Amino acid sequence: MARPGAAGLLAVDPADCVVVEDAPHGVNARKAAGCTVVGVATTHAPDDLGGADVCFTSLAEAAPYLLAVIDGR
């Protein structure tokens, strides 16, 4: 299986990756690659990031969620 982008460079399965995105094209590309996507609506409206698994209005708002994912909660 070809592994796109950073996941491929790191030899990590994209399904094990959590990606933070603020653009619709980025959200769509990362979802197509098989990653979990956290949308951060700083440059686009939350509705524009609808393909994200979860969406926040700022990195500060996303931080507790991301820390919980890292900790495996």
Provide an overview of this structure.
- The structure is a single chain.
- With 73 residues, the chain is of the alpha/beta class.
- It has one domain.
- Helix content is 38%, strand content 16%.
- It contains three helices and three strands; from the N terminus they run αβαββα.
- The protein has helices at residues 5-9, 24-33, 59-71, and strands spanning 18-21, 36-40, 54-56.
- A three-stranded parallel beta sheet has the order 1-2-3, sandwiched between helices.
- Strand 1, helix 2 (24-33) and strand 2 (36-40) form a beta-alpha-beta unit.
- The radius of gyration is 12 Å and the shape is globular.
- The model has no long low-confidence stretch (mean pLDDT 90).
- InterPro entries: HAD-like_sf, HAD_sf.
Main attributes?
globular; 73 residues; alpha/beta; three-stranded parallel beta sheet; 3 strands
